[in-house]
What we know:
CATH topology: Glutaredoxin
Radius of gyration: 15 Å
CATH superfamily: Glutaredoxin
Shape: globular
Distance between the termini: 48 Å
Number of helices: 5
CATH architecture: 3-Layer(aba) Sandwich
CATH class: Alpha Beta
Largest sheet: 4 strands, mixed
Number of domains: 1
Amino acid sequence: MVEDISERKQAMSGDIQQRIQTEVDGSPVVLFMKGTKEAPQCGFSAQVTQVLGSYGVNFKDIDVLADWDIREGIKSFSSWPTIPQLYVNGEFVGGCDITMELHRKGNLEEILNKAKG
Length: 117
């Protein structure tokens, strides 16, 4: 019985990982965040949204508060424990701290300019 539960968790985890991969691959810039770009639900998500907006970047927002599986799955997907998480061209850029540091150093614009589409 324990093996059945473990197998189901593993299968469910694989499904979530595939859903996340599909989202990451589906748009040039994707932000997994708390809330939406129109209504961020945490300060860190709001900061990243504001910075992306300052570059005029069109990005897909995914509200992790609306889906517990995505909220937990994104952490293992990226091996990064916090949200928000920014992806550009399918690559993990970082969370709020890394995104803000890239912005301060002038490197974020270059990364965003490489976004396909």
